[in-house]
Each structure stands twice: as structure tokens, then as C-alpha cells.
Amino acid sequence: MKRYALFDLDHTLLPHDTQALFCNFVLRRERWRTLLHLVFLPVAILRVFKLVPLEKAKCAFMAYLWGMPKARLMQHARDFAETEVKSRVYPELIAEVERHRREGRVLVLNTASPVIYPPDIARVLGFDHCVATPLVIQDPMPLIPRLSGPNNKNEQKIPNMERDVPGLANLTAEQRADCWSYSDSPADTPLLAFSGRQVLVHPGSTLRQRFPDAIVLTPPRPYASKVGDMLSVVRQVLGLYS
Q1: Which architecture characterizes domain 4-237 according to CATH?
Q2: What per-residue confidence (pLDDT) applies to 1?
């Protein structure tokens, strides 16, 4: 009988937004690309007032990759996973991944991040499957890339996962009761509800109330508050985070 352990990525396996962290990784190697954020800036302002859909804002943010050959982009993704992510992932969550592997569960990384680097993160951390937001990766990268499917977020994570992970769509209620889900965010309520057992990572009050019987993990973070996290994101987007 197949059993599964489902993990979100951002602020769950590691204490950062990986889109910002990957941007930081690239900009520290190619500083001139910071100027390309001027393309994203007006979109970001419009997004604050909800005048631009999240999907369009996500694509516009990736303007800093403009003109990059596909081979170099994929090398950045591999290096990012093997160095930056591996060094920053929560040891407590890696212990959970290893525990589920020992117990014979299929490990699934399910993230809203664009599919540039999640497969390499899944490989480095030992996951069996990776589900991410589909993106057209052209050679070279266009100024504003486009998604090739729905944003892998909220309830969309479930049909995408059932499509991409063999056997998962056919689980019985009894089998799902012995599956585990991990997340930090109310946006992952469908992912958490999919399994019989939930683990919340630094949850807010909304998530605690929704899953009162869940296990709660609070591993040490490199910032003391939400403001500290936001300041880290700003530094990462500018390539100034070390």
C-alpha cells in the first residue's frame, strides 16, 4: 500500500521565499541584472492595488532572467539547489523527510514556485516527485516568460499533484488517513486537508484554528519577525543577501 508525505517549500522546508532567494543567487553572480527589476517595478505597484493578476506579476518578476541562455539558467538552478538551499533548509524538516523515507512513504514536493529550480531542490533533498508551477523555459529567456498551465497554488495544488504523482489520485480514505502534509500557510489548506495527518511550520492563528490537532514545528529562523522576513526578501530581490 502506497503512503505519501507531501511538503510545501517556501517557509516550510526552508525559512525563505525561494523565488526571492533564487533571484538573490543569480544577481550575486550577474549584478547587472538588478537593472531589469525596472521592468517589474510598475507591475509590482499595480499588484499592490490588485490591478494585475498574481500570475502576471509572477512572470514579470522573472524579467531579471531576460536573455539568459537555457543552459546557464539550468546550471544556476542546479548550483542553487546544491549550495544555497541545501545550506538553508531546516534540519528539523530534513529529519522529517528522512523519517518518512525510512517508513516507506513516497515523498512529494509541492510548490507554487516556477519550475526552474524545484526539480533540482527535490533531487538534492531526496524527494521522489516534484510538482511546481509550469513555465515555458525558452532559450534564451524572454523579457517576460509565460506560464504553460495554472499557477500551482491554493486548491490547484491538488489536481496538479494527482495528475503528476502516480497512484495518488486513487487513494482510499483509509490510505489518505496515513498520509502526512506539511505547510506554513493557510493557502495550503487543501494540501493539508488532503492527508490524515498535518504538520504546521510556524503557523499563524488561522492555520492553528483550522487544524487544532496538527503537530506544530517552530525551528529557529534567521529573522525574528515578519518584518525581518520582509527585509530579507528586499535584500534578496536586490542581490544583497549573504
Answers
A1: 3-Layer(aba) Sandwich (3.40)
A2: 73
Q: Each residue of 155-186: pLDDT tens digit?
A: 999 999 999 999 999 999 999 999 999 999 99
Average pLDDT, the chain: 97
Distance CA 68, CA 208 (A): 42
C-beta separation of 93 from 182 below 8 A? yes
- pLDDT, one tens digit per residue, over 72-87 is 999 999 999 999 999 9
How many Å apart are CA 187 and CA 228, to the nearest integer? 21
Alpha helices in the chain (DSSP H): 18-27, 37-48, 54-61, 70-79, 86-88, 91-102, 118-125, 157-164, 173-177, 189-194, 205-210, 226-237
Average pLDDT over residues 227-233: 97
- Under 8 Å between Cβ of 232 and 241: yes
- Collapse the DSSP code of 121 into the 3-class scheme (helix H, G, I; strand E, B; otherwise coil) and give the result: helix
Output the nine-digit C-alpha cell for 2: 502506497
Q: Pick the closest to residue 192 from 152, 162, 155 (CA basis).
A: 155
> What number of other Cβ atoms are within 10 A of residue 212's Cβ?
6
Would you kindly state where each structural domain of the chain is located, as residue ranges?
4-237
